């Protein structure tokens, strides 16, 4: 197969999976991190799930997901999601999306929960409460505004870990992206394919890391103003 059309197709599929997993994980992480301000049970659930999401390996989640859908199909005739997708055949999105979105969800939840916990102790939060503002407005309008810049400090690490995990997720779920293309290049002894995909992946790392650092600088008032005060 020609190399450039192959790379365009695999890179686009990988980017779609990465963007969808990142967006899903961040949204769920924001909701999960906000539970830290709830009851004691909600706080324990938020912290426990975020720690579990960072600790459990991706390959274990994928294997458990494959075993679950096989068990469901054998016993009830219901296939929850595709467990195998080959080139030109069926491609499953649910399992790789779930497996890849766990890391950004756990990272975002931990960062937001810590930042919100610190923000709720600030003087301006006490002032807002003293003025009689509802708790929802205090959190959304004041606490979250101060927590988001702090949470963005961990975005470079979150993006790097998510990108590194994408190779494992794509290989184990047979998602036809750059991770699977890299493994096929290694299996069939194609050094030009391996080198090209490696360069693309390194460039992707640099772009994502630069974007995360830029967003962190834009959200931080001290960095935005050059640290002058």
Q: Which characteristics define this entry?
A:
229 residues; 10 helices; 0% strand
Fold and architecture overview:
This protein is mainly alpha-helical and 229 residues long. The protein is flat. Helix content is 79%, strand content 0%. The C terminus is likely disordered. The longest helix is centred in the first third of the chain and has 32 residues. Helix 1 crosses helix 4, helix 1 crosses helix 8 and helix 4 packs antiparallel against helix 7. The N and C termini lie far apart (59 Å).
What is the 3D shape?
A: flat
Distance between the termini: 59 Å
Helix count, DSSP H or I runs of 4 or more residues: 10
Spatial extent as radius of gyration: 21 Å
Helix content: over 70%
Give me a quick take on this structure.
The protein is mostly helical and 229 residues long. The protein is built from 10 helices and no strands.
């Amino acid at each position: 197969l020609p190399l450039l059309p192959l790379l365009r197709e695999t890179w686009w599929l990988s980017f779609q999976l990465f963007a969808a997993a990142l967006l899903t994980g961040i949204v769920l992480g924001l909701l999960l991190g906000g539970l830290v301000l709830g009851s004691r049970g909600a706080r324990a659930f938020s912290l426990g799930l975020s720690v579990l999401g960072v600790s459990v390996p991706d390959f274990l989640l994928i294997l458990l997901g494959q075993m679950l859908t096989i068990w469901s199909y054998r016993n009830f005739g219901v296939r929850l999601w595709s467990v195998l997708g080959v080139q030109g055949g069926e491609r499953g999105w649910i399992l790789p999306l779930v497996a890849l979105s766990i890391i950004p969800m756990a990272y975002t939840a931990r960062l937001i929960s810590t930042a919100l916990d610190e923000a709720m102790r600030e003087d301006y939060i006490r002032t807002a409460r003293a003025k009689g503002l509802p708790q929802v407005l205090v959190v959304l309008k004041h606490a979250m505004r101060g927590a988001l810049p702090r949470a963005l400090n961990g975005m470079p690490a979150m993006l790097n870990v998510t990108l590194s995990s994408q190779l494992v997720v794509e290989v184990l779920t047979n998602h036809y992206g750059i991770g699977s293309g890299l493994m096929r290049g290694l299996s069939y002894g194609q050094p030009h394919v391996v080198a090209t995909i490696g360069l693309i992946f390194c460039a992707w790392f640099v772009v994502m890391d630069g974007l995360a650092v830029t967003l962190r600088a834009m959200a931080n008032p001290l960095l935005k103003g050059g640290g002058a005060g």
